[in-house]
Design a protein that fits this description.
Layout lengths: L1 H10 L1 E2 L5 E2 L1 H5 L4 H15 L6 E5 L4 H11 L3 E4 L11 E8 L4 E8 L8 E9 L3 H12 L3 E11 L4 H4 L7 E10 L4 E4 L4 E3 L11 H23 L1
Parallel strand pairs: 3-4, 3-7, 7-8, 8-9
Antiparallel strand pairs: 1-2, 5-6, 9-10, 10-11
């Protein structure tokens, strides 16, 4: 999708270690118009397969999955990473490593909203190693539902996720495919087009003012405790 590629060229930041930051588009700030366009494009590509619901994982996948579900006229279900007390049993649970968090995350979906016979379209923000999507695929299988397709906004082809998902035997569509992220910040797209990612801004160092404020707060807290003890 040309408009998505244009935003990656303009605003993408390469943080190293295969991590592309697109926080101004979907992962923190959301470009609603662009996401509506993405949802319509996914609906165009997968509509003929007649999905009955869209499945994603919280948090960043929710926005493109929501616009896709809206365009298709079907419900959105998102896998939770923490189980609320309201979640009805039985619950389908799978685990997947998170590249950005550096740890394993749990994914949970209640049987209340994922049922046998559902035709499920998985939508996510990134396709990298494919492990999160594979975990959602296992949830679909556990629910005796049918996975009919996978769509992602951005695919980092060099991380091998598409190959890792081939056993699912469903169509995989990505709106922007990146074949290489070079150390100097060059982004290489599938069609051979290149762009230079914006350098990531260094973390702002804490100044003396922040340290003074922190010390004052600590002192005030200590004084309140002393006053309380005297009373």
């Amino acid at each position: 999708m040309d408009s998505l590629k244009a935003r990656i060229r303009q605003e993408g930041q390469y943080l190293g270690n295969g991590i592309l930051k697109v926080d101004s588009v979907v992962n923190h700030q959301v470009d609603a118009e662009l996401m509506l366009e993405a949802g319509a494009e996914f609906a165009r590509r997968f509509g003929a397969l007649q999905p009955t619901l869209v499945l994603t994982a919280e948090v960043s996948g929710i926005i493109p999955a929501l616009t896709t579900a809206f365009a298709l006229g079907v419900p959105l279900v998102f896998a939770r990473k923490h189980k609320p007390i309201t979640m009805q049993e039985p619950t389908f649970v799978e685990f997947a490593p998170s590249h950005t968090k550096g740890s394993e995350v749990s994914l949970m979906v209640s049987s209340e909203f994922l049922k046998p016979g559902d035709r499920v379209l998985i939508i996510d923000d990134f396709l990298a190693t494919g492990q999160t999507i594979a975990a959602m695929g296992r949830i679909v299988d556990d629910a005796e539902a049918e996975l009919i397709g996978i769509g992602t906004l951005i695919e980092k082809q060099f991380e091998g996720g598409r190959e890792a998902l081939q056993h699912l035997d469903v169509p995989i569509e990505s709106l922007a495919v990146i074949t290489e992220l070079r150390d100097e910040g060059t982004i290489v797209f599938e069609d051979g087009e290149t762009a230079t990612a914006k350098p990531a801004k260094p973390a702002k160092a804490k100044g003396k003012g922040a340290e003074v404020k922190k010390a004052a707060m600590k002192k005030g807290k200590k004084q309140r405790h002393i006053a309380k003890d005297k009373n």
